[in-house]
Amino acid sequence: MKKELKACRNCRRITTEDICPYCGGETTDEWHGYVFILVKEKSRIAAEMGADNGEFALRVR
Ligand SMILES: [Zn+2]
Hints:
The protein is mostly beta strands. The chain has one helix spanning 44-49; strands at 6-8, 14-15, 27-28, 31-37, 54-60. The chain has a single domain (6-60), classed as Rubrerythrin, domain 2 (Single Sheet), CATH 2.20.28.
């Protein structure tokens, strides 16, 4: 069975869990815009989001 990707409402990390493994926040499947940050120092999006390296959603409902 394919697991649905979800995004954390708090830190916007992409995960398949109901509870975010990074910050413990609630996750939702209602998110848009996939961002993969490989080198945060070179990413303007990462700077604007205050995000670390990893997979993130641009918008979380
Ligand atoms: Zn989180």
